[in-house]
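Notes from hallway chat w/ T.B., transcribed later so I don't forget. T.B. wanted the structure written out for a chain they're using in a teaching module, and asked if we could keep both sequence and structure tokens in one place. Agreed to drop them here.
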Amino acid sequence: MKPLTLIILLTALLAPSASTARSAKKPNIVFVLADDLGWRDVGFHGAKFAETPNLDALAHDGMIMNQFYSGGPNCAPTRACIMTGMYSPRTQLYTPGGKSKGSVNLMRLLVPARGGDAEHNTLESRNNTIEGAHTCIAEVLKPAGYTTARIGKWHLGPDTQGFDLSTCNGNNGPGRKHYGSITVARTMTDRAVKFIDENKDKPFFLYVAHWDVHGPHRALKEVVKKYKKKSQGWDNATNEKPNPVYAAMITAVDESVGRIRGKLKETGLDKNTIFIFSSDNGGTPVTTMEPLRGAKGALFEGGIRVSTCVTWPGVIKPGSSCDTPLTSVDLLPTFAEIAGAQLPKNQPVDGRSFLPLLKGKKALDERAIFWHYPLYLTGNGAGKVKPVYGTTEPYWRGVPATVMRKGDWKLFYFYEDKSVELYDVKNDISEKKNLTTEQAERTATMKKELLTWVKNTKAPTPDKLNPKFGRTSETGEELKAEGK
């Protein structure tokens, strides 16, 4: 054999094939986040009116996370928790703008304003911004060789925190709000599939944060028409609210998931991609959260338990489920471990990786998870008597409180009167029976751990009476906070 021929033959034999190189590549990570999607709004949790075939297929092909929680009861705190792996007292984000919402004269306590406008009972206004010193997911993954994209709702200030691609609507348009757009889900998905095409030969992290199903509720006419027809004669055996427009918005998110998964399969990347879907908080009154108590804005299950499923061919067992309580702060350390990336050294990481659960481990060591909400939040247009968002509270859906979940138990600590409530959420998912009397020792132990956490995280806690509590303006009208 001639020397040149031998060299060519050896080179061909020793060089890795394209398929071998691709299989050795680090896994891609796709994370799709819905906005205000209710826990029961998907087929894999029993919904029948809104059709979610793509989300149901995702759940069928992978794992349903039955007890996954958002980091906060509304959008901004959850997104900050996701991006940083830290609880809200560390990110200092609790609501959009850090403001209470409702009548100031009905707020019993002053929140600790820290330089904010106490006249409106608010925290320091931060414009939803994550501090630049905080390291976020993209900045964690990039040193590990990942190209990163953020498409859709950001809601964390002007800084995109290290993403290679950052767009709010898929068209590189201005960073404005796109609530109520009937086409934004499609334009975002167009950009997502293009990003996959552009980066199929290197590992990527793709974060698609939908504006749907947040209000105002609008959708494509042809899809709404389909659901209007379906609503006629709807027997409602599943106790849903058959809202055609809302269902059409859910369809927009579902179709997006289907298109992204389709592109992954088309490019051969699906077998080396972990795909996770979740929501930023619970649903709103346009849907039903039953049997969960409360909804968006509340720290009861209806406000923070969110529909979540994940697939990863060859790693996650199809048709599996996970009952371990998990939360948004766990995403960053999980993604970091999957990518072989280092966790931030300049900030604490409150979450922990749940990769062992994805690989089939039955449970992780028991730990406590926390929520902290030092503000007031009423319902949209709620009156003084009518209960808000399915709660028993006559006006507020959110009052200053810290909540702790440990094992099957969930403890509420309310700052207005320093009262506590304890629920066994495994056996009482609706949080109807307060067990503080029956479980006095457990209550005391959990309360001590909760207050220690509050102290260690330097969480702002209201403890001063609001001088405007019970007052009205000179015209006799309620004094309104300027929250959003």
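Follow-up for T.B.: The radius of gyration is 24 Å. Might be a good example for the class.
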